C-alpha cells in the first residue's frame, strides 16, 4: 500500500471509530429494556384487560438478544463482499423502525415482532459490522479499540434510562419510545456515511504484525469452517455463555429487581440501571486495554472471579439495602463489560483477523444462548420461588465453570505452544 494512502487511513480510522461508537451508542439502548418493560406492561394491562408484569415481557428482550447472530453472520459475509457502509445503514434502519413500532405496539405478540425480531435482527447486522470493521483498522490496539467500540454500546444504558424515564413521565411510554426511535434513525444514518471498509493490506504506520498473540498461540487466519473444526472454538463459546449469563440476566431485570430486592422507587431503580451500564462501559475499556498487555484469558479469569464476588453481594441484599445492591450490580456490570470488551480481540487473536466478520458473528451465538437462558431462567425461578436467590445461585455455578474453562484454555494453549 502506498505511504500516502496509509497515512490517510491512519487518520481516517479514528473518525471511523468515532462514527462506529455513536452508532453503537444507539444500538446499546437494548440494555435499557428493563426501563421500558414496566410501563409497557402497564400499557398492555390497560389495553388487554389482562395483568402483565415486566417479567411477562422478558420474552421480548430474550428474542431480541437471541436472534442477533443470524444477521451478524450474514451481515459479516455481506460486509466482506460489498463493504460495511450499507450493511450498517440497513441494520440501523431496521433497528430504529423496530423501536418506533415498539411504541405503537398494543399486544405482546406485536412487541415480540417489532422489538424482538425487527429490532433484534437490525441490531445484530449493524453491531457486528461496526465492531469487526473497526477492530480491523486497529491491529495494533485490538483490545483497546474493541473495548471502546463495545463500551459505547454499553454506555447507552447510562444515558437512555433517565431520558426515557423523564419522557415517559411527560408524554407517556408510546411517544417516549417513538421519539427515541426517530432520534436513533437520524444518528445511525448520518454516522454510516463516514464508515469505509478496511483494506485487506492496511498496516498502520510503525506497526509490525506479531507472529504470536498475547496468550501465546501463533496467529493463523481461519475461515468459519476451520474455526468450527477447532475444539478451542467450543471452549471459547461455552466460556462466553457462562460469562454473559449473569450480565444479561441482571440487565434484563435490573429495574424490577432493584424495586423488589432493595425497595427502590421507580426513579431510583432507573438510576440503578444507569449505574449498571456505566460500570459495564468502564469494564469494556479497562479490560480491553489490560488484555492488550496481560493477555485476553488472564483478564477473563479475573472477570469470572469478580463476578462470583458480585453475585455473592447480591445474595446478601435485604429490603432497603440500596448501597449493597448498587455495589453488587456495579461489580456485575464491570465483569459483563470486561467479557464483551475482550471477546472481539480474543476471537481475532485466536482465528485471525481476515475472516473475523463472520467468525465473531458465529462466536456471538454464545452471547445469544446466554441472552435466551439468562432472562428466561431468571423469570421462571422468580415465578416459582418468589425471589431472585435461585437465579443468582445458577449464575454463580456458571461463573465457576467459566473459571475452570479459562484455566483449561491456558493449559491447552501452553501444551500447543
Mind explaining what this structure looks like?
It is a single chain. The protein has 417 residues and is mainly alpha-helical. The chain has a single domain, classed as Growth Hormone, Chain: A (Up-down Bundle). Helices cover 81% and strands 0% of the residues. The protein has 16 helices and no strands. α1 runs antiparallel to α6 (108-137) and α3 (58-66) runs antiparallel to α15. The model is unreliable at 212-219 (pLDDT under 50).
Order of helices and strands: HHHHHHHHHHHHHHHH
Shape label: globular
CATH hierarchy: architecture: Up-down Bundle
CATH class: Mainly Alpha
Notable characteristics:
mainly alpha, Growth Hormone, Chain: A, 417 residues, globular
Give a quick precis of the structure.
The chain is 81% helix and 0% strand. The protein is mainly α.
Sequence-ordered SSE layout with sheet pairings:
Layout: H1 3-27, H2 33-48, H3 58-66, H4 68-82, H5 85-104, H6 108-137, H7 142-171, H8 173-192, H9 224-228, H10 231-262, H11 266-294, H12 296-315, H13 322-351, H14 356-363, H15 365-385, H16 389-416
Helix pairs in contact: 1-6, 1-7, 1-8, 2-10, 3-6, 3-15, 4-6, 4-14, 5-6, 5-8, 6-7, 6-14, 7-8, 7-11, 7-13, 10-11, 10-13, 10-15, 10-16, 11-12, 11-13, 12-13, 12-16, 13-14, 15-16
Amino acid at each position: 500500500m502506498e505511504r500516502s494512502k496509509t497515512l490517510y487511513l491512519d487518520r481516517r480510522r479514528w473518525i471511523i471509530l468515532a462514527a462506529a461508537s455513536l452508532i453503537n451508542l444507539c444500538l446499546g439502548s437494548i440494555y435499557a429494556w428493563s426501563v421500558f418493560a414496566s410501563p409497557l406492561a402497564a400499557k398492555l394491562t390497560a389495553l388487554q384487560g389482562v395483568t402483565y408484569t415486566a417479567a411477562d415481557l422478558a420474552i421480548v428482550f430474550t428474542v431480541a438478544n437471541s436472534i442477533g447472530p443470524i444477521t451478524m453472520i450474514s451481515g459479516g459475509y455481506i460486509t466482506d463482499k460489498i463493504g460495511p457502509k450499507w450493511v450498517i445503514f440497513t441494520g440501523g434502519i431496521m433497528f430504529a423502525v423496530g423501536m418506533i413500532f415498539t411504541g405503537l405496539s398494543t399486544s405482546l405478540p406485536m412487541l415480540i415482532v417489532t422489538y424482538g425480531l425487527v429490532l433484534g435482527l437490525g441490531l445484530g447486522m449493524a453491531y457486528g459490522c461496526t465492531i469487526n470493521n473497526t477492530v480491523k483498522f486497529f491491529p495494533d490496539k485490538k483490545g483497546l479499540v474493541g473495548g471502546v467500540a463495545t463500551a459505547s454500546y454499553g454506555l447507552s444504558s447510562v444515558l437512555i434510562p433517565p431520558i426515557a424515564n423523564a419522557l415517559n413521565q411527560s408524554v407517556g411510554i408510546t411517544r417516549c419510545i417513538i421519539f427515541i426511535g426517530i432520534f436513533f434513525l437520524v444518528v445511525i444514518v448520518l454516522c454510516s456515511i463516514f464508515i469505509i471498509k478496511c483494506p485487506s493490506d492496511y498496516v498502520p504506520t510503525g506497526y509490525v504484525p506479531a507472529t504470536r498473540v498475547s496468550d501465546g498461540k501463533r496467529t493463523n487466519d481461519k475461515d468459519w469452517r476451520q474455526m468450527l473444526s477447532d475444539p478451542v472454538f467450543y471452549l471459547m463459546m461455552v466460556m462466553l455463555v457462562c460469562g454473559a449469563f449473569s450480565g444479561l440476566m441482571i440487565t434484563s431485570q435490573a429495574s424490577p429487581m432493584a424495586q423488589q430486592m432493595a425497595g427502590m422507587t421507580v426513579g431510583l431503580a432507573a438510576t440503578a440501571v444507569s449505574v449498571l451500564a456505566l460500570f459495564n462501559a468502564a469494564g469494556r475499556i479497562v479490560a480491553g486495554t489490560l488484555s492488550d498487555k496481560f493477555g485476553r484469558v488472564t483478564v477473563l479469569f479475573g472477570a469470572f472471579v469478580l463476578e462470583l464476588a458480585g453475585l455473592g453481594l447480591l445474595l446478601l441484599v435485604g429490603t432497603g439495602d440500596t448501597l449493597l445492591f448498587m455495589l453488587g450490580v456495579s461489580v456485575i456490570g464491570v465483569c459483563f463489560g470486561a467479557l464483551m470488551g475482550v471477546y472481539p480481540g480474543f476471537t481475532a487473536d485466536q482465528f485471525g483477523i481476515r475472516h473475523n466478520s463472520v467468525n465473531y458473528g458465529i462466536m456471538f451465538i454464545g452471547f445469544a444462548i446466554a441472552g435466551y437462558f439468562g432472562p428466561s431462567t431468571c423469570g421462571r425461578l422468580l415465578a416459582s420461588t418468589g425471589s431472585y436467590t435461585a437465579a443468582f445461585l445458577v449464575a454463580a455455578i456458571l461463573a465457576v465453570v467459566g473459571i475452570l474453562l479459562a484455566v483449561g484454555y491456558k493449559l491447552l494453549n501452553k501444551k500447543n505452544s
